[in-house]
């Protein structure tokens, strides 16, 4: 019985020896002492970006954190972010794919989870020049304005209903509906919810697929970091295969509907699914890549927009001075006889600063997605071995007192005093990342966040629920890759524009 244990023991000893050799060979960044096998997994607090920011204060702006046997390097200031995202961008442009993301992305055949190489360059070019070009964003503007005005109408109906007088509303419900309807119309050309708010069969299936994907991904969390535990958490091949088939089936049905519509009309619309079909041969896109790109857009755009707006509204309710100042600008520039449009943004500088400050204080993806080293590099004078993961703590950088005055204060005026780019050129403010991995839909995100905040402020005055003081609003985050509010925001909306302006401006494009 003892004989079979000998080779197993040798393998374990050799593996540990190899890991020790790597640690001694390289001058790794400092960090909390890891435990055998599990590394720092049990030291990490649930809200990781705050935990890593605390560790950065103790160990320095570049730290080593071990997820099991995998080295993760976290950088927490703008100078080091520039090294990661600009100086060594090419060497740190790969993606770490665990078993679930590998399956969901067909092993990196999409954009988000693709390693840096010819495929990534091709689909990135497609996104930049075609899907998110200024021309296409302009052509799809009516969809954004339709969904934002639908939100206004829904809030107005609810807050003026006799049964709801003085009652608070769940802000997440309304901003989440905009995100959901907007991204599905953008990607699939489908509004799964009718004017009464009832979701159709395809919409329910779409929601179920998304929820099931999250469930499958979470089922493997611990085993992904400790290779020799994976036998205890096997990949549910059948469950992942069924999920992939279900996702693809829905997508193909919608794609076929678009194909038939194009054949009937003789032309393609501006939605992403039509654009991808039109460009399929030019960019040599496989069906896996088309499906992967569509779901990338949904994954990246579904929650992040709603999260940013909900945090922004929480800050505006906590800071009535800022809310009033933004409303005074809207009243002066737009008035009470019409509603805001995206064309007005350029003449609403304070509104733009409000949106920017919300994205600074509460970046929706505070650690970005990890970059994976495809070669040995040095960051901040320390060695980053090949195959290590590198995270940029965007939240810590945005709260760094060395570069931001009173960094925890919600003060949009800071961006009137200094114009700071937030699309990847200024490493103090990185809500959309930077470098080769910068979000191609950054401008779309900025437009929609700004539009939603503009309408919420122009149409309504927002106050805390009855019996609650503004300072009692819970501003803590839920654990996770994106920063949901731990306690969803409740607020009282009071109309401030004539009732005829609180109507949805519906379009069908």
Automatic annotation (TrEMBL):
Membrane topology (UniProt): Single-pass membrane protein
GO molecular function terms noted in the UniProt entry: heme binding; iron ion binding; monooxygenase activity; oxidoreductase activity, acting on paired donors, with incorporation or reduction of molecular oxygen
Task: Quote a single Gene Ontology cellular component term.
Answer: membrane
Residues binding heme are 439
The regions listed as transmembrane in this protein's record are 6-21
In terms of Pfam families, this protein maps to: p450
- Record keywords, A-Z: Heme, Iron, Membrane, Metal-binding, Monooxygenase, Oxidoreductase, Transmembrane, Transmembrane helix
Q: Which domain of life does this protein belong to?
A: Eukaryota
Compartment annotation:
Membrane
InterPro entries membership: Cyt_P450 (IPR001128), Cyt_P450_CS (IPR017972), Cyt_P450_E_grp-I (IPR002401), Cyt_P450_sf (IPR036396)
**Cofactors that this protein relies on:** heme
Q: Which family does it belong to?
A: Belongs to the cytochrome P450 family.
**Which named protein is this?**
Cytochrome P450 98A2-like
Q: What is the lineage of its organism?
A: Eukaryota, Viridiplantae, Streptophyta, Embryophyta, Tracheophyta
């Amino acid at each position: 019985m003892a004989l079979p244990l000998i080779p197993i023991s040798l393998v374990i000893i050799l593996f540990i020896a190899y890991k020790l050799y790597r640690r001694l060979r390289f001058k790794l960044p400092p960090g909390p002492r890891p435990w055998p096998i599990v590394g720092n997994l049990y030291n990490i607090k649930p809200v990781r970006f705050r935990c890593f920011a605390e560790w950065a204060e103790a160990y320095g702006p570049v730290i080593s954190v071990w997820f099991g046997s995998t080295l993760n390097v976290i950088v927490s200031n703008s100078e080091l972010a520039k090294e990661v995202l600009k100086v060594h961008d090419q060497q740190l442009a790969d993606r770490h794919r665990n078993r679930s993301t590998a399956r969901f992305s067909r092993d990196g055949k999409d954009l988000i989870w693709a390693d840096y190489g010819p495929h990534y360059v091709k689909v990135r070019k497609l996104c930049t020049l075609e899907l998110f070009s200024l021309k296409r964003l302009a052509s799809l503007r009516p969809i954004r304005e339709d969904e934002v005005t639908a939100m206004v109408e829904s809030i107005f109906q609810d807050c003026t209903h006799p049964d709801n007088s003085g009652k608070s509303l769940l802000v997440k419900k309304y901003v989440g509906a905009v995100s959901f309807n907007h991204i599905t119309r953008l990607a699939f050309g489908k509004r799964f919810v009718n004017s009464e708010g009832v979701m159709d069969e395809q919409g329910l299936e779409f929601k179920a697929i998304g929820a099931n994907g999250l469930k499958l991904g979470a089922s493997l969390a611990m085993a992904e970091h400790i290779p020799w535990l994976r036998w205890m958490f096997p990949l549910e091949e059948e469950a992942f295969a069924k999920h992939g088939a279900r996702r693809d089936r829905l997508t193909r049905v919608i794609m076929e509907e678009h194909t038939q519509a194009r054949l009937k009309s003789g032309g393609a619309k501006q939605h992403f699914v039509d654009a991808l079909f039109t460009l399929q041969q030019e960019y040599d896109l496989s069906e896996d890549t088309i499906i992967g790109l569509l779901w990338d857009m949904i994954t990246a755009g579904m929650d992040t927009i709603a999260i940013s707006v909900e945090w922004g509204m929480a800050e505006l309710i906590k800071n009535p001075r800022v809310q009033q100042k933004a409303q005074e600008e809207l009243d002066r520039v737009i008035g009470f006889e019409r509603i805001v449009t995206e064309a007005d943004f350029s003449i609403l500088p304070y509104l733009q600063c409000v949106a920017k400050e919300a994205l600074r204080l509460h970046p929706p993806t505070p650690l970005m997605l990890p970059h994976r080293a495809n070669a040995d590099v040095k960051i901040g004078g320390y060695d980053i071995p090949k195959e290590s993961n590198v995270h940029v703590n965007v939240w810590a950088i945005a709260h760094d007192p060395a570069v931001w005055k009173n960094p925890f204060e919600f003060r949009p005026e800071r961006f009137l005093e200094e114009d700071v780019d937030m699309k990847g050129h200024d490493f103090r403010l990185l809500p959309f990342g930077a470098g080769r991995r910068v979000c191609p839909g950054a401008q779309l995100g900025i437009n929609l966040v700004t539009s939603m905040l503009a309408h919420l402020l122009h149409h309504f005055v927002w106050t805390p629920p009855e019996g609650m003081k503004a300072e009692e609003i819970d501003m803590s985050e839920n654990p996770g890759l994106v920063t949901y509010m731990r306690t969803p925001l409740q607020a009282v909306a009071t109309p401030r524009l004539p009732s005829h302006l609180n109507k949805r401006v519906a379009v069908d494009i």
